[in-house]
Description:
This protein is an all-beta fold and 214 residues long. It has strands at 14-19, 25-30, 35-39, 45-49, 56-61, 67-72, 76-81, 87-92, 98-103, 109-114, 119-123, 129-133, 140-145, 151-156, 160-165, 171-176, 182-187, 193-198, 203-207. Keywords: Repeat, WD repeat.
Amino acid sequence: xxxxxxxxxxxxxxxxxxxxxxxxxxxxxxxxxxxxxxxxxxxxxxxxxxxxxxxxxxxxxxxxxxxxxxxxxxxxxxxxxxxxxxxxxxxxxxxxxxxxxxxxxxxxxxxxxxxxxxxxxxxxxxxxxxxxxxxxxxxxxxxxxxxxxxxxxxxxxxxxxxxxxxxxxxxxxxxxxxxxxxxxxxxxxxxxxxxxxxxxxxxxxxxxxxxxxx
Length: 214
């Protein structure tokens, strides 16, 4: 139950931390605008990921562990090399803070959600924006891929979640029923259901294919 390492070095609140797939490296994001990677064998810093112009609010590793993905209130996400700490792509196009960014399970695509009321799908290889997912009436707070990488679910302050086709960017289902802002949404492992959680004190389970609350 003892603390193994005290990871210190940021100049602001640490907003998120993520383990690499191997469990040997940690990535952190901070309000100081930086992300950092750390060795969990020594507790020492490895790379400082510097480039965002405002707070860094989210961080995750690619499925193969070779890249780190960050999201920032500067309205961009960035892809970084774990080995060098260099920025491979700046994913620019949102009109407001990007509050979440995630890889699809095979690592080929990235999805971002933003306070500009949209989500976006990007190529992780080229940084090109492939789809803009528009339809929500208020801020987006989360975005998540299905395990097969074919669908996305977004959660919004407009009290709704939406299921989208990754290949076309088309909205497939609108999950409406909560009475207050959503916090997040995620797919079940088999992709058949979606769970949403809300500030209305409830969680709901929905069919991903009919949009009905089950």
